[in-house]
Amino acid sequence: MKAHIAANRRLAILKLLIESAGVANDSVLHTAMKAIGHVAELDRTAMRVLIKELEERDCLTTEMVHGTVMVATITERGRMAAVGHCAIDGVASPHGG
Predict the structure, then answer these.
(1) pLDDT 10s digits, 25-44
(2) Element at 8 (helix H, strand E)
(3) C-alpha to C-alpha distances, 5 to 12, 27, 67, 69, nearest whole angstrom
(4) CA distances from 2 to 5, 7, 41, 79, 90 (A)
(5) DSSP state at residue 85
(6) Strands 23-25, 60-65: parallel, antiparallel or unpaired by DSSP?
(7) Using CA atoms in the order 83, 84, 88, 94, what is the torsion angle rounded to 10 degrees?
(8) Spatial distance between the Cα atoms of 53 and 59, rounded to a whole number of angstroms
(9) N- or C-end of the chain: fewer Cβ atoms within 10 A?
(10) What is 9-78 written as a DSSP string?
(11) Dist CA 35 CA 8 (whole Å)
């Protein structure tokens, strides 16, 4: 996957988390990503990779529930990135720059 597509997807995940009160599981996020046009090369495994990459950037935290469901919770840093108040390497700017 191209770097700019991955960065755009990471931003979209953060925005979706904000819309869902800051918390969502990987299945819900995957369905929402497909609904907004992120279809190519985005299966559940790829979704989890993007979520873990955001966790590595301190944009969210994750918790495995029942060993099968990954729950993501946005952090303040993730909220700031989603609205363009801070720049994070590998996360697209919501302002397009």
Answers:
(1) 999 999 999 999 988 999 99
(2) helix 3-19
(3) 10, 20, 29, 25
(4) 5, 9, 11, 24, 11
(5) S
(6) unpaired
(7) 80
(8) 9
(9) C
(10) HHHHHHHHHHHTTTEEEHHHHHHHHHHTT--TT--HHHHHHHHHHHHHTTSEEEEEETTTEEEEEE-HHH
(11) 15
Alpha-carbon distances of 44 from 36, 53, 77, 80, rounded to whole Å: 16, 14, 24, 26
CA distance 15 to 74: 9
Report d(CA 96, CA 48) in Å as an integer: 25
- Whether this prediction's pTM lies above 0.85 is answered by yes
- 82: closest CA among 1, 22, 42? 22
Beta-carbon count within 10 A of 79 CB: 18
Q: Tell me, rounded to whole angstroms, the distance of Cα 13 from its chain centroid.
A: 3
- pLDDT band (50, 70, 90) for residue 5: very high
